[in-house]
Amino acid sequence: MKLTSSPLNHLRYYVPLSSFSPDADLSKLSEVDGTNGSAHLARLTVAGRSTDRVIIFNTPALKDLVKIEFRAMDKWFEEDVETFCHPKDPYKRIDILSSTRSVKIALDGVTLAESSSPLFLLETTLRTRYYLPPTSVKWDLLMPSDLETLCPYKGKANYYHVNVDGKLHKNLVWYYRTPTMESAAIAGHLCFYNEAVDIWVDGKKVER
């Protein structure tokens, strides 16, 4: 298998034709416009289910490799570990650091959470996120949301709305019940969108 990145840093898996099981029926449909026969749209059919989100390549760099749109498949695995949403970037990392620095979170002048035992999550190219223990949050201001999102580095996130003085701020808080192994430390902790709330770290306000 090959992992590539586009100029927009969209990672893709390319699977050798020889790696498909005998149960997988892979058939070419038509030539991709402008490729002079070096790429063909294709259909993948397995157990009566199929997807046309497939391209078969025949170039020196991608000879006999198949690109399948990530979301077209039910599951993807790196070795025996399921990965979510999109392939992981080998140049990206997650660091989760325990801290005794005080973190206070407020919205419209109302304190939502405050803790002296937060976790700082550092993710390559992204701003620091502050994960607070559930005992530090004012639960009377939170309302469960049906939203779920996926992250290949952290897993499946669930959300809460925040209600401040009768105004509902949707999906402002997220948490991971069962995060991936690399992010296991944040299980059950809550994180508020930096961009939508006021955050102080050791009394110094963080820019939104």
Structure in words:
This is DUF427-domain-containing protein. Pfam families: NTP_transf_9. By secondary structure, the protein is mostly beta strands. The protein folds into 2 domains: 73 residues, no CATH class; 113 residues, Metal Binding Protein, Guanine Nucleotide Exchange Factor, Chain A. It has no helices and 19 strands. β14 and β15 form a beta hairpin. The protein is elongated and about 60 Å long. The two termini are 40 Å apart.
Throw out a few tags for this protein.
six-stranded antiparallel beta sheet, 208 residues, DUF427, 2 domains, mainly beta, DUF427_sf
Short synopsis of the structure:
This protein is mainly β and 208 residues long. 0% of the residues lie in helices and 52% in strands.
Topology overview:
Layout: E1 2-5, E2 11-16, E3 25-31, E4 39-46, E5 49-57, E6 65-68, E7 76-78, E8 81-83, E9 94-98, E10 103-107, E11 110-115, E12 119-123, E13 129-132, E14 142-151, E15 155-164, E16 167-175, E17 190-192, E18 198-201, E19 204-206
Antiparallel strand pairs: 1-2, 2-6, 3-4, 4-5, 5-6, 7-8, 9-12, 10-11, 10-18, 12-13, 13-17, 14-15, 15-16, 16-17, 18-19
